[in-house]
Records
---
Amino acid sequence: MSSDHIISWHQDAVLTDSSGSSIAAHAAKPHANCDPLTPISSLPSYIAGISSGHLPLMGHFDGERPSVIGDFLTQTGGSTGQPKIIQRSSESWLCSFHYMHEHYAIDPNARVAALGYLNHSLALYAALEALHLGADFHALCGLSPAQCAKAMQERGITHLYATPTQLRLLASTPIPTVNYVFVGGGMMDVPNKTHVTQVFPNAEIIEFYGSAETSFITLSDKYTPTGSVGKPFLDVRIEIRNERKELCAPNLVGDVWVKTPLLFNQYLFTSSNVTQKNGDYICVGEKGSLDKSGYLFIKGRTDRAVNIADQIVYLDQIETTLQSIPNLENIALFAKPDALRGNIIHAVIQSESITLKDIASVLPRAIQPRSLVTVSKWPLLPSGKTNYKALEHLIKGTSDDN
């Protein structure tokens, strides 16, 4: 493989960790396993491992792996289960690097930051993109929301990659240097969009939809309708299909199938029970619809769709609806089997004032949560997504009081 088709470290790029210390790329020796406790300082070695064929992983794993020049390993978000290790090629990310350079000015004058840990796909993408294009990259993982905001102000960050949950937790203090905020890893609700606009008053907020397996699928812009995650990115093609894999008409909900040049190669050491392939198309377990103009609307994950009173409801979509309640910081919904209704919903929230009655007031009775647990601190995964597994045990043993 030509060196032009391998992710590398641009000579002008600088990596800065959460403490503000800069790390140089020189003298990095490639090795397969990077120290999971110091993922930032391991990044130079990680990049060296891509060109040497060591198939590096940001994080520790003892299993045998093939030697493939230009390939690397990363992990899925793992919000509802164990993160999966995936293998992908440099070429699968390089084309989007060049697109972001041309359209969003990620270049040697940019200062890019990510709020998640580098052993997961979103933050790793942001880091490799910045360093390959010569931009400074600031890894702000492990900091509190207040510390993140302070670091972005002090360092003059111009581009930010983050999840909706990470952004929701930031204080409303304006950070005027940021020109672009790229939001992925979940759906943005209207109050959160308003909040992000206040925090980053000079920034264009770009919501994208994708996965660790597919990378970018859609990208939003100022013309994107409310509730949509945008139109297909670059040469990506999207089809909505029913259970028989037949095409759905516009605005009908079905499985989201994607054909993309940004596709990963394979899962390594593991597999997925939701990912399907059909010819050149792949489905990673998401439900959605396309309108007549080609805008994609996501309902939620297939494994978060439940039957309640003979209706299929999407817990992800209900969560997005409930986030519009004032003073509700975060919410996670869980379904438990019920002999009468099929399933009933239970909620875990982060809020000092919201009650079960407040939540019930904005939902039809059939899908109103039957119990409510409040937590003071919201658990996040290293990927920046909600840690559903950490919250799920809180609703075990709850029962329908109605």
---
Amino acid sequence: MAEKLIRGFWAAFEKDAVSDLESFFTADYVRHSPQADISRDDFLTVIRDRARAFPDLKTVILDVVEDKDKIAYRWESHGTHQCTFMNVPPTGRTVRVSGITISRISGGKIAEDWSSWQNSDVLHGMSVFPI
């Protein structure tokens, strides 16, 4: 069930990033990252900004492991940089990034996420700096 939820979220995001994505998350959802923990509303703002910058963004889920109330999945995303993102004006370049996300599921919704990916891959893809 958790895999179906995660795949459903990404399918809905790719179809229409401003749709009712809130329905995939608990009201008290938290996105954990090294920089800061953010709320559901803040996370939805982040991913909607990403969708504006990369309107053709596609995410492929490569591997999935489920255990009790958690699901871990390895993913890869790619899209064309068509709007300002991370203060970088549109470049028209295809950006690829991959990572791993662990989600805790509660009541059939995503309650928490921990995700690891490289911001530098995005910046490199937009030609901000070479790697």
---
Amino acid sequence: MRTVADAAIFLLACLAAASAAESPAVAASLDLSLEQKVGQLLMVGLSGKRLEPEAARLLRTIRPGAVILYSRNISSTSQLRRFAGEITRAMENGVIPFLAVDQEGGNVVRVRYPATVIPGAMALGATGDTALAFLAGVATGADLRQLGITMNLAPVLDVNTSAANSVINVRAFSDDAVLVGKLGSAYMLGQQQSGVAAVAKHFPGHGDTAIDSHYGLPVVRIDEKALLDRVLLPFRYASAVGLDALLVGHVAVPSVDPSGAPASLSEKLISGILRNRLGFDGLVVTDDMEMHAVADRYGTGEAAVRSVLAGSDMVMVAWTPSRKYEAFNALLEAVRSGRIPRRRLEEAVARILSLKRKYGLLASHHSNVQPARPSLPVGRHQKIARTIARRSVTLVFDRQRMLPLPRGSRLVVASALSHFLGKMKELFPRSVTLKMQHAPSRRKLSGYLERLGKLAAGSDAVVVGVSNRYHAWLVQRLYRKTSTPVIVVSFASPYLVRYFRGVAAYLCTYSYQPLSQLAVAEALAGRISITGKLPVTIGRGMKRGGGLVLRASARRRPPGIAGGQGALLHAGTAME
């Protein structure tokens, strides 16, 4: 079945690439003013959860090519539908904008339940399943389209080769470029098939950095050959099978551009590497121009102009209203003065409008882009997300062969995550739970440590759900304080293992989404099989591809789980 699934994805990729190649420029078919064309070059953010007068004025003045929504704009799916409609109606005398979000899954989510929230890229990496990645893209895209969203800034195609990288980390599929390319391309194809434009990120790679471009300029110190052969391989994969768009990050690569300019402003990286060497002819979008990596050095307006000159088609300005107007006016003046050639403007607008036509945004009636159904197919898509959560659970080591834990175990369970604590209490009735704060003070941590030390004395094991370094600090001291075995579940970075090499067992979920919390509790109880494999190398003896397989016991299996082999879907992936 896997062969059939992969063949189906390959066929879809060929059709998508052919469709993209046949799509002609459409700028000439629309009678747009110069101001309207310049507006198409901007992706802007809005404040609030409804269209306020100030935001409406901004939309009517700039007429942006895209509007990006964040968590600050979304409180529920019904509210999002209304907001999407308000934005579209405000633009009824112009070209409808893309409505964009960052819905990566895992730790980067804008739209929550009942929309599908997959556990995230690294969780998919732990499954190693391209068909499942495709289904994740289908589910995410279908839900977003029904809510009025037409563009998603996903998938992440960064190759996470640095354990110190807190910016990407579990947002990446793997530290293996080939696996990232296969899974990312499959996810992208599924999303685009569902009617949502995919914007892969962050070209030219943010996976080997330790600086967050929100606050400073990351520098990737790698030679051009290694950049092309490894770091950019996933982008090459996705481009070859019909990727719609690509987001250029604020990352400097001195080996390609010795000036030190970030990729978002670098002609050598955008036009030289991306367009000419990789052959990508899709839409190029920048990361937010208000990030300190560019704003502090160039100013928003000048950065926008330099980016378009370098080859970007759409510039993001997400937060401050005055900076959105600044970018618009700077671009308009640059075109009028000839600094930005008309040919460069027309080229960018043609790409934007071609992609809008592909997704029905150039239709004469705006009702064509409204959500088609009042409700989401929650059950079917949640089943996909649940399967990813269950199949991604990874048992890195079990030194005392403690798993699965018997139902009658006397456990002490500590975590900041409510779904995990509740499920553990249900599966292990004799357990005692301790709800921790997500980011506790050192004094609070010391209190947790003291209490856990006392509770551990009369227990069979202590299970700690780790969400960050605060909790890792606690574990590091706990296993030295007690002789009771300590089992650690990382709901965050798998690299946290360096803080607690002396624990009895270590499991990873790569996500703190509720479905991942429930899945690892079921795995600890032996109710589901543990089959996940490390998608990244996290230390000595813990290489990519490692992980213990632990089959579920028939007597412990929950209803509907047939030895980890549930009903087969059309894509050939076992669903649980």
---
Amino acid sequence: MSGNKRPVKGKRDKRKSKNSASDDIEEEIKTIFRNVARRLATQESLEVEAGHAILAFLQGNAARRLTPQLASNRQRIYERTKSRLELLKKSKAAVVVQTSWRGHRAREVHRPLLQQSKEAALVLQRNFRG
């Protein structure tokens, strides 16, 4: 009967009180760390979101500034390829030119020149073979 004594209210077992005190302290430390980690995570995510917003804003401004420059570069490339095409037309060479301007592709094939070159090749083959 002496082993089954119920604890009296208000009095605690000494071993239990030591363990519960250290458990309480440990639990409190864990909650503090959890709260700090949560605060840091939210602060960090807010900073990251702000950083992303700033980068997007700056990239948008840079894109707005660069758009006319890119357009002028494209125009220059287009004009250069067109002038080369004119030179090739004048030199009567059979060419296939692809130029890209604003995403559209223009293909120019000079069929008569190709036909002439094919006929010339056939004549050469006939003469060579005898």
